[in-house]
Structure formats: C-alpha cells, structure tokens
Amino acid sequence: MKQCQATRLQDSPHLCYTFLRNIVVYLSAADTGVWGIWNGMRISSKGDYGLRALFDLAQRYGEGPIQSDEIASRQGIPVNYLNQLLITLRRAGLIDSLRGPQGGHLLARKPEQISLLDILTVLEGPLLPIDHGRDDRMPSVPEDHRLIDDLWGEMRETIAQQLAAVSLDDLCQRKRHRSGEVMYYI
Length: 186
Prior knowledge:
Layout: H1 15-32, E1 37-38, E2 41-42, H2 45-59, H3 68-75, H4 79-91, E3 95-98, E4 104-107, H5 116-124, H6 142-164, H7 168-179
Antiparallel strand pairs: 1-2, 3-4
C-alpha cells in the first residue's frame, strides 16, 4: 500500500474523500465478515492472526483446552508467532492457558462476551490514533482543523461501534450459517 505523503488536507484535496471511501469499504467488510486488509486501512498480521486464533478457540468453546500447535495448523499461523500472541491475549484477560500435557488455551469468557473491539484494541492499540506529533498544529484557520479533528473523532467512534457490535459468537454463527449448519435450541 502506498503511504500518503500529504501532511495537511490541503496538500491532497481528495484525502478526506479517500479515507471516507475506505471506511465505507471497512464497514462493508465488517458486515460481511471479511477481515484482513480493508482497502487502505490495514490490520497487521498481529491483529489478523490473533483474531483467527480467538475465532478458532470460540468455535471449540466448551471442549476444553486447545493446544497452540492445533490452532496454528488449522489457521495457518506460525507456531512461534502464535505463542507470542497468546501470551498477549492471556495478559489482557481474553484467554486462559493451562500448562502440561493436557494443557492448552481456552477463552476466558463466553464467545458472546468478547467483541472484535476487545480483540483488536489489545492487539493493534487505539483505532485511528490522533497524530499529536505534527509540528503544523498552529493552523491559519483553526476552525478548519477543529472541524477535521471532529470528523476523525466521529470516524473513530463509528469504527469502535461497529467492532463492538460483533462478537466471537457472531462470527461462529456466521460460519454455521454459511456452511448450512443449523443449531436447534430447546
């Protein structure tokens, strides 16, 4: 992906439009369950692999501890990298880990209680962080910058709401629906 060289909106007139278009693509991806690269907005391998690992654990929720090599094999994640991610997820309280030959990893909460926002915030950090390090923060038209800053705030909130609305259980239900698997509850 090409990096944007513009430092201010006036340097690239369509920067705001492009960003908004990418967010719409992102929201469509969230609705369809397609993750990874959201046409300009990237989720790193850390976020992607971590989400896949937790999704794998969610699909096997209630079956006991799952060993990391099983998760790595099913999800196509390098085992050593997965183990690093699992440590991060355990420290964040999203998974529990048990040692020993019968050990492994399992979700610390029910799948419906873990949102994509929880996962990606742990693995990726804040969504659309504010760039406080720029030296051009003394604008000639401060109202313009406040307006644009408000826009970024609204975008952060929209993304957070979308991610918070989708749980690991929602992903499991989507997978069952796509595969034609029907769950009957009595």
